[in-house]
Amino acid sequence: MVVSGGRMTKKTNRSKKSNLFWRIAVSAVGAALVFLAALHMALFFFGETAAARVSTRRVGGADDGKPAGQRYEWSLDYTFRDENGILHSGHTTRRGGDLSVQTDSTVYYFPFAPFLNALAGDAKPGIAQLLMAAAGVFLLFVMNRKQRRPGRPANSNRPPAEPGDYDDSVEELFHQDDP
Question: Over the stretch 46-105, which tens digit does the pLDDT of each residue have?
């Protein structure tokens, strides 16, 4: 830290603000990943199902590095009626082949909040949700762990010793058993 006349310089202050911004931004991404993974799992286990009408549209160019069945990005728009007969819609993307993409015709939703919904393939528990949750927890952990100060043990609650101060705590323990 650069101190000039008892005050931090603007450069250090700007650096702290920048670090705080990135810490908040990356933490928000981590929290969003955990939330989305938990939401999809909760939709599968606690949500209602409904039949969906799905329309597909191929977007973008071919990715020749992928297998034939995954060369294109497809946009899937779907609509469904909840248990009260109200029409709701949703959107997702999937990888697919040249002429078609595999779609589901079932949607999971919460009756109390039908705007929280997902196609059956997205809500089904799998490795994708576990990886998404693990990535989110990792980002939250990395960005919010306590930073150690140099020269101080991680689990020490005692203030650091002053230079020239003699720490005789070990000697006291050694002489505790003397008669």
Answer: 999 999 999 999 998 888 888 888 889 999 999 999 999 999 999 999 999 988 899 989
* Single-letter residue type at 47: G
Q: Under a CB-based contact definition with an 8 Å cutoff, are residues 97 and 68 in contact? A: yes
Q: What percent of the chain has pLDDT over 90?
A: 56
Residue 80: how many other CB atoms lie within 10 Å: 23
- Position of tokens 């005692």? 158
Q: Which helix (H) or strand (E) holds 67?
A: none
How far is Cα 98 from Cα 49, in angstroms, rounded to an integer? 30
For CA atoms 129, 130, 132, 133, the dihedral sign is positive
Cβ-contact 1, 13 below 8 angstroms: no
Question: What phi, psi does 76 have (nearest 5°)?
Answer: -115, 120
Residue 16: how many CB atoms within 10 A of its CB?
A: 12
The H or E element spanning position 135 is: helix 127-144
Residue 77 has which token pair?
């728009």
The structure tokens listed for 24 are: 């908040």
